[in-house]
UniProtKB/TrEMBL annotation:
This is Adenylate kinase 9-like. GO terms for molecular function: ATP binding; nucleobase-containing compound kinase activity. It holds the Pfam family Hydin_ADK. The keyword Kinase applies. One of its GO terms (biological process) is nucleobase-containing compound metabolic process. Keywords: Kinase, Nucleotide-binding, Transferase. Residues 437-567 form the Hydin adenylate kinase-like domain.
Amino acid sequence: MADEANPETKPSQEIHVQTGASVHDLNLKNQFPRKFTLQDFLNLDPFDEDEAEQRFLTSKPTCFLVVGKPGSGKSTIAKKLAAEWKAELVNPTDLILTSIKNNTDLGKKAQDILLKGEAIPESIVAHMIDEKINSPEVAHHGYVLDGFPSQSENNFDIGQQMEMMKNWKLQPDFIINLRIPDKDLTRRRVHQKVDPISGNLYIKEMYAPNKPKAVKKEETETEEGDEEEAEEMEEERPEEPQDEFFAVIANDVVERLVIRPEDTLSYVQSSLGTFKEALLRVLEDQMANMDQSYLIELDSNLSPTILIKQLLLRLESYPIRKAAKVLRMSEPVEVNEEEAANTDHFVDTIEIEENLSSLQSRKKLSGKFKWRRSKCAFYCPVSLKDGKIVSGKPDYAASFLDKIYLMADENRLRDFLKNPRPYLRLPQPRAPCKLSILGTPFSGKTSLSALLAKKYNASVIDMKSLMEPRIKKANDELRDRVTVEATQSAIDQIKQKFREKLEQEKVKREQEQAERAAMLAETQEAQQDQESQEVRQPAEEKTELSEQEAEDKQNQNEDNFDIQKEESIVNEPIDYSKLDPNVTYSEENDITVNPDHPDIQFAIEKALEDLAKQQFNLPPSEYIKVLQDELDRIRKNRAKIDPTAANDGGWILDNFPNDSEQLNAMAESNIIPDTFLILQDSSDDSSILSKRWYQLNKDEIDQRITKRLADEAISLLVFVLSMIF
């Protein structure tokens, strides 16, 4: 289904489930962690590989704090310990140089201050340290903190530094205190020199070691046997191991060594005094309040090589382990912009299988060692954490805890190399729960969605319920709009009909008036003719016709009166209420229609009836907008409960999408379920769904059946009685 919607999107899995099967028969594995009890810890198998791996992934990385007087060798011990323990070295000087090199915001500020010839404030250095302590690489490897807290209180006093340290999520587990008397420390520092080219520091024992004095042999006569025996004893005597810290320095390096201003006697005494006044009491309180078994004190008069050996020997007695380093299996490759932009894709698994065999034998830790495949198979664990199923590439392979992991691109590989724990710690790695359950009515979509959501700790998204308020609002707005349009249309028709009736009435009155005028003219003409005849008639005839004429004249007068009366009626104003009682008409040709006009009500009812017959639905964009808002809400709630939860996934769509347009809109918005579950009834005539529908509506169906049987019985009885009688 997803391929038809958008060919560029990743393919989704489509699974057909038999509707008649019980949802409890589905074998679903719960991959979510549960709360461990004391009995669970007692039952842990120390030889179980998966349990041991999860214990390591959930354990806190070991963190060290190296303290001591200025010049006691803290930086040297911290560097060696970080290298041996595979931890992150947190040193203010290194952080400043790294920030300037990476052109970060704090690095830009520090560079501007240095270019002005000023000292970098402790507040900026403290923020650099704080960012480093909270970085992903420190969360996996731990840290060795050196040079903090600082005795310099430039814009950031020691109290603020200690308060910031207390707020760190990763507190120091061990405090390594390098102790040395002031006299010995002063003698070491005043003779200390620096190489101006490399910046390396050298103490006097390194650039001017004490050579043993040659002993003169007494000239005595010895026998040849004694000489041979002495030579054999010299050969059998084991050579004393040479301390690499005191390795021979080249003469040209020794010649260019200089003394730093801060190593002068006055400056050394001043710095020791400042340390005791400002920082010593704070450090002593810090060490007094911690578990003394985790306080390691070393004699700084010894060689750093001996000190680091003593320290590592002491650490072996604690139930801690070094950080597991992540190895990159291949060299970085150049990728063009098109390939870099297209990372969320599926790679040919056959090609990956061919390359995995060569990866398993690369960078072996021993002769017979072979890297194993991880549970992620060929999927990228970083993408799985983000809620996406993306295939990894052999070019971005990494090994961790004797397993191989494939990343999708350089950025994801970089994140995995910094800290692989969030991507492998339970419930990761797992495919994100992004399902869509479709099917016919009464096929069990909602029930299956609820069970799957409970198993996979997902949220069910019922689009029908979410869209119901919007659909109702849109439907009401449409009904109002249809009502207004129907009302306006009906009013226009009523006004048109009224105007037509008014014109007909006016024409009718004009015709009647013309007819009356013609009749009156004829009557008057006849009367004039009669009067003229009377004048010409003899007197005898006038006497005979006098009575008849009087009667005709009276009738004629009555006819003239009737014509004049009818003419006056025609000239009366028109009664508009007789044309339409629900319409008001003024002399200014203004027509007002009563809203309760029967034609208006009929038009509204007819329009709403036609609207009800149409299938109303919102555009797909409205559904996608609501779906995105719901996914954002689910993502925020999951982040509050579990900050390590996947950024995407954890949802199940109940009967959505419903058509291809909605599916295309989901593909355009990059919201595509990984799996579609389609519930269907494969039985004959859909008998299972029919039985399920009957069980859900049994009471209503039984009542209808009973009523139908009763009506049929009454009809049959009436028919029989009519046949008998």
